Amino acid sequence: MELRHLRYFCAVAEEKNLTRAAEKLFIAQPPLTRQIKQLEEDVGAQLFDRHSRGLTLTPAGKYFWEQAKQMLAKADMVIENTRRIAEEQKAVFSIGFVPSVFYGQLPSLVRDLRQQTNANILLHDLKTGEQIEALKTGKIDIGFGRLTIPDEQVEQTILFQEPLLVALHVGHPLLKKGEPTLEELAKMPMILYPANKAATPTFADICTSLFTSRGMTTNVTQQVNDLQTALGLVASEMGFALVSEQVRHFGRDDVVFIPLQDKSITCPVIFSRRKEPMDSITALAVKILKNLVENHQSSL
Predict the structure, then answer these.
(1) pLDDT in tens, 203-262
(2) H/E stretch holding 97
């Protein structure tokens, strides 16, 4: 089986029509039909049900399609990284992260990796669910997120639990009352981030579940894509936002960060990597990260 066979299959699966798939691939239909039949023989399973008006995937075909897309994405990433290495004579090491972890251990990890390796370190702003897919396709090598998303190909480790803080405008009247409760916050306009258009949960779901799990409703007035925009809305007195403790280092004169009254309310920092033997750079990253986490815990 060659990569072109997978590309042919994916085109047919997407179009559900051999004629349109052939046009998309710039090949004639009869050779494409033969390639698909040969692929089914090689796999040993029927991948498509044939109908007078087109094709539909069989259950085996649906599984094969998901795996084929991952294999093609990984192959494309390998080719891209190989070319980059050839041009720059450097290995490529990619890290996925959610913005709220960028103010903690991640900058130190990147700095130490740059100092101790000859690798080209690439950073990708990805939600935790996106990181899982990126790990499986090889787009990233490790990831830092907030959510546990079970996947048989990915190993996730909770590094530590981090307190959640309330971001308020510097002149907000709630500041005079001390540390707020969730009951008080539930009555106020809430700003959520990130906006979630995907099926997998995000930090926004963590925040809303704090209220719903306690039988409270939230008054979400704005949902935005990123942390900086959320803090900008807080500064504009549009409402409050819940943020991780690391965000305290995000310096703004017009926003203050205060603890919740309930100190048991925390959010995890989660490290993700592929379930496979570690290469030398990943092993070094894990070693550096272990020291950084130990230093963080000892400073509490």
Answers:
(1) 888 899 999 999 999 999 999 988 889 999 999 999 999 999 888 877 678 999 999 999
(2) strand 92-97
Give the whole-angstrom CA distance, residue 148 versus residue 164.
17
188/53: higher pLDDT: 188
Q: pTM for the whole thing?
A: 0.68
Separation CA 96–CA 82 (nearest Å): 20
* Structural tokens at position 251: 């310096």
Q: Per DSSP, what are the bridge partners of residue 155?
A: 273
Q: Which residue has the tokens 């990597």?
A: 273
Please tell me the distance from the alpha carbon of residue 294 to that of residue 36, in angstroms, as a whole number.
54
Q: Count CA atoms within 13 Å of residue 205 on its CB side.
A: 13
Report residue 146: phi and psi, to 5°. -125, -10
Local structure of residue 240 (DSSP, 8 states): B
- 43 burial type by CB count under 10 A (0-12 exposed, 13-18 middle, 19+ buried): middle
Residue 252: burial class (beta carbons within 10 Å; 0-12, 13-18, 19+): middle
pLDDT digits (tens, 9 = 90+) for 118-163: 888 999 989 888 999 999 988 899 999 988 989 999 999 999 999 9
Instruction: Give the position of tokens 């090598």.
Output: 141
**Per-residue model confidence as pLDDT tens digits over 66-105:** 888 888 888 887 787 777 767 666 778 999 998 878 777 8
What residue ranges define each of the domains in the chain, with the CATH number in brackets? 3-84 (1.10.10.10), 88-159+268-298 (3.40.190.10), 162-266 (3.40.190.10)
The amino acid that residue 52 corresponds to is S
